[in-house]
Amino acid sequence: MSQTLIIAAHPNISRSVVNRRWLDAVRHRDCATVHELYDAYPDGHIDIAAEQARVDAHRKIILQFPVYWFNCPPLLKKWLDEVLTYGWAYGSQGKALAGKTVALAVSLGTPAADYRADGKIGYGVAEVLRPFELTMKYCNADYRPPFVFHTIDSNAAYDDAARAVIEQSAADYLDWLEKTLSIKPAQTI
Q1: pLDDT score, position 188
Q2: Residue 62: is it exposed, middle or buried by C-beta count within 10 angstroms (0-12/13-18/19+)?
Q3: Model confidence pTM above 0.85
Q4: How many structural domains compose the chain?
Q5: Is Oxidoreductase given among the entry's keywords (predicted)?
Q6: Smallest Cα–Cα separation from 65: which of 110, 31, 34, 19?
Q7: Which of 41, 107, 120, 140 is the most buried (most CB within 10 A)?
Q8: What's the CA gap between 154 and 15, in Å, rounded?
Q9: Could you give the CA distance from residue 145 to residue 140 in angstroms, rounded to a whole number?
């Protein structure tokens, strides 16, 4: 089993362009265990014990998702609320995430320039994602800077230039996994 667990939360991965491509790249390189929340729990009922055992079995955790309204998709929020329990993830006895490397891999359907103090959003990506950082640090995890991909509008048509950008994002994602998180791929893409 891989040391790294990617918890992917995309409500419709079959229609995703970016997140699906990232997961395909990871699976092709065999560098992490991929767990798709919406496939595992189509009814929204999370098996807390199974999820905690899955986290316990890995040293590195990546939460991968498209940013929805400056947050994660609803099932990932529910996963965080239900799985990261007192006495397991935090509290005087909660040590499950202590020392584990945790990071986010997110896609945003807006240009990077929008995520600045003087941009359309008015805040940087790190500020928008701060609740995730605070949660992981509260659980004593080793939180790392996120992998962030901008500009692909999910409602846009994809031409050759857009497909090339998406392919590059998949290569960049694999490079980030290897360099930032010391995840070694089994083979090349």
Answers
A1: 42
A2: buried
A3: yes
A4: 1
A5: yes
A6: 19
A7: 107
A8: 9
A9: 15
Q: Is residue 186 part of a domain?
A: no
CA gap 115, 125 in Å, rounded: 6
In a domain, 102, yes or no: yes
Residues 6+ apart with CB under 8 A from 81: none
**3-state SS assignment for residue 20:** helix
Query: Would you say residue 124 has pLDDT above 70?
Result: yes
How do residues 67-89 score in pLDDT, each as one tens digit?
A: 999 999 999 999 999 999 999 99
Could you give the CA distance from residue 124 to residue 130 in angstroms, rounded to a whole number? 10
Asked if residue 32 belongs to a domain, the reply is yes
Name residue, tokens 């980030």: 176
Structural domain that includes position 162:
4-181
Distance CA 8, CA 38 (A): 8
